[in-house]
Amino acid sequence: MASLTKEIESLKTELADFDDKLLRAQAEMQNMQSRQKKETASMLKYAGSDLAKKKFCLPLIT
Hints:
Blueprint: H1 2-61
C-alpha cells in the first residue's frame, strides 16, 4: 500500500511538472507570435521609407 501511495505522489509531481512546462511553452508561443506581429508591422511601416530614400535621394547625390 505504501508503494502505491509513493507512486501516486510521484505521478502527481510529474503531472505538475508537465503542466508547468506546458504553460511555459504556451506563454513562449504567445510571446513569439506577439513579437512576430510587431516586427512585421514595423517592417511594413518602414519598408516604403527605405525605397523612397533610395529612389529620391540618389539622384540628388549624383
